[in-house]
Amino acid sequence: MTYQYLPQGVCSRKMTIELDGTVIRKVYVEGGCHGNLQGISRLVEGMEAQDAIERMEGIRCGFKQTSCPDQLATALKKALQQG
Length: 83
What we know:
Layout: E1 2-5, E2 12-20, E3 23-31, H1 34-44, H2 49-56, H3 68-82
Helix pairs in contact: 2-3
């Protein structure tokens, strides 16, 4: 299943997630800190979505109430609800 999410409150503009059941197969993020988001994407590939959610949910970026990892956790939760 491929899921697209438009993050809010962060620099990234779009997240595309490919899930195989509950396992993350691929993550692509448009915008944001490209190097950091490539690293996060590669780290979560092959991981159970729920494990990734638990690790990233609640992370903040500076003064913001959210971050790209937190928004990725939100996207994963929504993708799991749809799947």
